[in-house]
Amino acid sequence: LIAGIIIVPIKTFQTIFTETGGRDSWFSLILASIFIVVYFLFILYVCKVKNCYDIFQIYSVTLGKLLGNFFIILFSLNLFFSIVESAAAEASAMNTQFLIYTPTWQLLLLSVPVVIYVVKGGYSTMLNSVLIGIIFISVSGVVLFLLTWKYKDFNRLLPILEHGMDKNFFITMFKLIGSYGGVYIILLFLD
């Protein structure tokens, strides 16, 4: 779930990042990833020092009851829309690549029973499905890399940072940081 929410925006909306970042988008992605990891480690450090891992309590104590509840609702809406986006992107990819004549909404309806089974099955079912999914994704990524190797031209990446770290580079980096917003679902599992 977490990987799907994090990876789908980056893989699906690549054109948004390459429009502004051009051939240096990959470098912006690396810097955005480092920033998110450092920022998240800082949040975990603060949670450990304060001995408080409950996101609802953190929002309520820090922002007050009214504003805290508002941000909890905002956080919940963000998670809901991220899940809908991930499911819609997956169904759209299936529709475009494999099942051209099947409407996207039917593919979404087909995935609902599977998701319900995994969620209702408990921790072990969820863990097994995630591990199997990661194995298949990794194998398919390696196979795709090997099959497309002879068509890769790494000279298209050069020169690196031709225009330097200009305005477009930082705009791309901020867009990529925004696409990592789903990583905060981990906070729900810390308590």
Binned, the helix content reads over 70%
Q: How would you spell out the order of helices and strands?
A: HHHHHHHH
Biggest β-sheet: count, sense, barrel?
none
- Rg over CA atoms: 20 Å
* Overall mean confidence score, pLDDT: 81
Ends distance: 18 Å
Poorly predicted runs: none
Counted beta strands: 0
Q: Could you say which structural class the secondary elements and strand pairing correspond to?
A: mainly alpha
Count of DSSP-assigned helices: 8
β-strand percent reads under 5%
Task: Sum up the overall morphology in one term.
Answer: globular
Characterization of the model:
With 191 residues, the chain is mainly α. Helices cover 74% and strands 0% of the residues. The chain contains eight helices and no strands. The longest helix has 33 residues, at 65-97.
Keywords:
single chain, 191 residues, mainly alpha, 8 helices
Give a quick rundown of the structure.
This protein is mainly α. It is built from eight helices and no strands. The chain has helices at residues 2-12, 14-21, 25-50, 55-63, 65-97, 104-120, 123-147, 167-179.
Fold blueprint:
Layout: H1 2-12, H2 14-21, H3 25-50, H4 55-63, H5 65-97, H6 104-120, H7 123-147, H8 167-179
